[in-house]
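Postdoc handover notes: sequence design on the structure in folder B. Input tokens:
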């Protein structure tokens, strides 16, 4: 059945100017998401939704499609990812194309791989899931978090404060890398999914929010370490680089 990958890449970025087209270890960061989607072999269409002509040109050179530019209403600071995805699906439908499955990839997600996308689609079909979300476990139990109230610290959940970390239920958060959907269910709920999401659990080593330049550098270090480990593993298995 047909599937589309949508990479959402707005031109404006206040914290890291030009973030979606900035070079990450030698190439524009958006190229990593495009290459993962193309390399997965899952999609009939890999497209970039953007309001920026330079991003559009980078995307086309990387092999993605940019059949139309994002509307002004879906490009302002108040537009949500759902606004963007629904606009893309509706515009394709006007052009006579519909899809059974969809993946939304963020443009600053260099840790996304073709293998992860294939695993997400496998779980989605196996579980008949409406959506798939990659998540990572909090490194510190949030049940033992604290507020600052009138200048003093207070436990958010005092009943959990004396408990051992291993006795607390693991809590996870969104990786901010990609999401997969059954399109009909997604559109019917305008982004609200019946049955919610199924998780794909990632390790901390392959997850990094990139909200500022320090995050960016950390992501480059992590990526380089993962690549180095992967090369060593391939050599250990007698494979060529």
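Designed sequence:
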């Amino acid at each position: 059945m047909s599937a589309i990958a949508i990479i959402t890449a707005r031109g404006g970025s206040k914290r890291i100017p030009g973030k979606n087209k900035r070079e990450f270890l030698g190439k524009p960061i958006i190229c990593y998401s495009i290459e993962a989607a193309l390399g997965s072999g899952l999609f009939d269409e890999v497209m970039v939704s953007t309001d920026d002509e330079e991003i559009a040109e980078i995307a086309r050179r990387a092999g993605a499609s940019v059949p139309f530019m994002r509307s002004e209403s879906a490009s302002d600071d108040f537009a949500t990812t759902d606004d963007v995805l629904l606009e893309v699906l509706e515009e394709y439908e006007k052009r006579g194309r519909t899809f059974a499955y969809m993946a939304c990839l963020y443009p600053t997600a260099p840790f996304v791989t073709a293998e992860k996308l294939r695993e997400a689609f496998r779980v989605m079909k196996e579980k008949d899931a409406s959506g798939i979300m990659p998540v990572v476990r909090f490194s510190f139990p949030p049940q033992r978090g604290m507020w600052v109230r009138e200048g003093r610290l207070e436990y958010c959940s005092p009943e959990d404060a004396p408990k051992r970390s291993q006795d607390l239920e693991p809590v996870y958060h969104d990786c901010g890398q990609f999401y997969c959907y059954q399109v009909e269910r997604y559109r019917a709920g305008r982004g609200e999914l019946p049955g919610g999401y199924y998780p794909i659990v990632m390790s901390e080593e392959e997850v990094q929010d990139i909200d500022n330049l320090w995050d960016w550098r950390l992501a480059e270090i992590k990526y380089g370490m993962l690549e180095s480990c992967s090369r060593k593993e391939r050599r250990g298995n007698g494979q060529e680089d």
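Context for whoever picks this up: The radius of gyration is 20 Å. Don't rerun without checking with the PI first.
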